[in-house]
Amino acid sequence: MAIRRQSGNASQISAAGTVRARNQARILDAAEAVFAAHGYRGGSLSAIAQTAGLARANLLYYFKSKHGLYVALLERTMTRWNDLLEKIDVDDEPAQVLSAFIRAKLSLVRQYPQASRLFAGEVLQGAPMLQDYLRGPLREWVDARAAILSGWIERGQLDARIDPHALIFLIWSTTQHYADYEAQVLALTGRESLTDADEQRIGDFLCHMVLAGCGLTDPGSPGSGA
Amino acid sequence: MAIRRQSGNASQISAAGTVRARNQARILDAAEAVFAAHGYRGGSLSAIAQTAGLARANLLYYFKSKHGLYVALLERTMTRWNDLLEKIDVDDEPAQVLSAFIRAKLSLVRQYPQASRLFAGEVLQGAPMLQDYLRGPLREWVDARAAILSGWIERGQLDARIDPHALIFLIWSTTQHYADYEAQVLALTGRESLTDADEQRIGDFLCHMVLAGCGLTDPGSPGSGA
DNA sequence: CAATTTTCTGACCAACTGTTCAGGAAATTG
DNA sequence: CAATTTCCTGAACAGTTGGTCAGAAAATTG
Hints:
The structure is a homodimer. By secondary structure, chain A is an all-alpha fold. Chain A folds into 2 domains: 18-70, Arc Repressor Mutant, subunit A (Orthogonal Bundle); 87-213, Orthogonal Bundle (Tetracycline Repressor, domain 2). Helices cover 69% and strands 0% of the residues of chain A. The first copy, chain A, is built from 10 helices and no strands. Residues 1-16 of chain A have low confidence and may be disordered. At the A-B interface, helix 1, helix 6, helix 7, helix 8 and helix 9 of A face helix 1, helix 6, helix 7, helix 8 and helix 9 of B.
């Protein structure tokens, strides 16, 4: 009787639903910051409301529960990531593909460090809310890429000692490290933040390591040559 | 008037203080499990007490506050790690040293996955309680190893494209990954747990990648040759 | 043994947690 | 304009949080 046209995903943005879309986004942004900083259990609705500049009870008008907000936030994050990672495809040239993948992931991680840490925290605690995503879509994505790597190995384009899954994990972990362990990296290198130059340098290094390990030659980084 | 001989660090274990030492250890173990699973804010004293099989109020007899317990736990973890990592030294042979370091870290991470995740969670949230450790002892440790790597580069024993700090981060992140992201690794590989054989295989792979990237030849893994 | 110290616990506290709800404010609609 | 829907909020809810404390129970000591 009361709430009817909840408009599942902000059907029309123009006139109506603009308030809804804007506030939902604000809440999700605030939730991302708070959950990334304190985890699910540690992040309170009060803190999120304060960050978003809204009343606490108002959060629960848009999201029916803390759990629901958290899930919605994870979904938004996963969608964003999928969109950006899906672009990596079989360009035939292994060195090019691996190099592009490394730099894309590194850039992604640096662009959304909070989302990155949110995801890390969730997995760290056993990924209780992400089991379906991990065992479904993500696993398909990984297996598809692993199959490509295996194909390259069979055709002699890649060192046979490479374990496709392990290689993907290596690229993930090394790039992710600069978001998840940012505090440690900064403390150990005496920096205040990671610059574009740092990203370039790290990208160069990781590409070199991965390609050398795969028995490939570095195609060079975009921005260094012509 | 009341508490006097608090006996800072369990002075005598034989007769007196045996109860204290045993209970402190029990509490720390329980706290490790709970904090690793839910983070600092998310881990409650009730949960820790239940896990330890003690009354909640009893925890605060041994540790004056939740914060104090958490700090004590971090200190125990850091001490353990330091003891185990300090063993890695300049054995002159770069390939041997790197290989040993990788396998030691991998084994450590698999031996204490909870401690590993506890540390990860703390750093993930900006390492608020570990700033001193990171900027002090750990930085010294890292800088010392980085200096050794630089020495190797100067003597032509290591590829000049290697960034010492980035290499250490690479080894840390790739090994740590199998503890911090265990849930993801298991979900993506369809396993239930990581076996000794897995550890061996992962160690082989990581050694190959790192050594190849450093322009070194693999000395082989212990347990495969004679 | 008695005296003293150490260990342990239940009750209590104020502050905070997520959530509900009635009803007011604002926006949209016809 | 009035009617209706959407948006927002303060108050109150039951439950949990970290922490205190008086005093019982157990262990140690001489």
